[in-house]
Amino acid sequence: MQTIASILALDTVMRGEPELLLGSERLNDPVRWVHVAGTRDLTGLLQGGELVLATAAIASPTAASARNFLEALAQEGAAALFVEAPDSRPEYDDAARLLQNAAAQVGVEFPVVQLHREVRFVEITQSVHELIVAEQFSKVERARQLHEEFMNLSVRGASQEDIVEAAARLVGEPVILEDRQHRVLSWSANSDRALEPWTRHEPLEEVALELHWIRSDVGVGGHHWAQLVIPLQEATNHRDEEWASDAVLVLERAAQALTISRLAGRDERAVVQRARSAFLSDAATTAGLSAVRRRELNVRAQALGLGSAQRYLPGVVVLKEEIPQAAEHPSRRYAPGERQNQEIELIEHLYRTAAARRIPLLAATTTSGQVGVLVGLGAVAEGTAARAAEDQTLAEIFASVDMTALRIGVGDSAVEAVDAAAGLAAAAKVAHTAASLISPTHSFYRTVDLRLHGLLSQLAEDQRVADFVEAELGALLHPVDEPALELLTAFIEAGGNRSIVAREKFLSRPAVYARLARIEERLGVSLEDAASRTSLHVALLAREISDGRTSPS
């Protein structure tokens, strides 16, 4: 990881005879990127963590401008400021004093460096970016190696002891596998001392926090059955951030391998799951079914474990294509086989929860990334009371499930299981449409909840809708101009406010105005006209839903 200190040591920087004016205590702060300031107004141009390069003419021509410039950098989250103020230029003699005084007034803490000789900013930028890109490539290569290492263990059917041992070898520290009650399940070689906290019956959570233990949950979705732990012996033994980051990656890959290994022992359950999936497929439509066939399907449902109930409610769970992460990390796509594992974990969790609450349930995978559910209901209610009762039952079954990673569509309840199963197709359409919503508003969606999204979803296969999309957006679709479509979508969702678009897209306002003007010209409409924006909004939603139907998961 590149820091202010490491960048100061570069030849391209040393040629500028750098002098640290302030911020010596933060020289080890990381640098994410380099930005050359060509203007004093950097609003929306930085994302945080950048090293900013500027001339004294930009940064400190006057005391007021120096103060405003430093204050703006602090607000934008800059990591440091390097100011070129050559000794050969008498007009810059006061640059250091102006910057130091301004920093004291504003309360700036990040490093500020004066370059006493002229330098080529492009050379500094290139040298730093090369180092950052090389580090990123190294991390990608390391991730690939770890993936191969643990994938090979999974393919060979390695035991959990072998997987734990491999993790310990890769991090150079003892690794412990414990269950959710902190009982040791497995440990690596030479872990005698590392196991001491478990033998003393201490509050392990407090010990882990105090000594900065590194941990990773083992399991899929919201169900974790174990945890991998690197039990560091002293608070000062957590090495550096790069090692800790690599150790987390190793534990995550080891946790995946352990999960796959555990799932591999579930073949007998897979037979039952296939039978349940076959029932949901056979009962997908009730049109033209004879009384004998209907009775046969209802008997199959009972034989597969669906208990008796007054009514049955169909629901479909759609696993989103990407897995949401913590706020500081982007969503990531599923690794090979990971989504199937999550489907299995979800189904087993639903069965455990339903059994504990004595709720009749039949759940099975209907297609990749999609789980069909039939839920038995108790007393029959009417109107809004019926929905409240249904949602309460669903909430009990889906308790402790991470709802951010999935969407649930609900159909109409029916007296017989076979009729409820026939409603899964409609529930699936609702779930897939709900999965395209950026901001979820419900835990369980019905057609009435989707409003315009729901209507367009039902009409998605109508050629007239496709013709409408072509008429409204054709100029941006041949070829597809995704940046323009994304900017247009952001503009409409911002209610036509260009300033909001500029802030969210990290663009200058003039750039947003210019790009939207080009879009107006290409489409031949005015974006100031409310009717035009409404038509474009509908067309964008219809296109989004149409793409979702092509690849619904």
TrEMBL record:
| Record domain PucR C-terminal helix-turn-helix: where | 485-542
The name on file for this protein is Purine catabolism regulator
According to the entry, every stretch annotated as the Purine catabolism PurC-like domain falls at 7-132
Checking InterPro entries in the record gives: CdaR-like_regulators (IPR051448), PucR_C-HTH_dom (IPR025736), PucR_C-HTH_sf (IPR042070), PucR_dom (IPR012914)
This protein's superkingdom?
Bacteria
Which organism is this protein's natural source? Neomicrococcus lactis
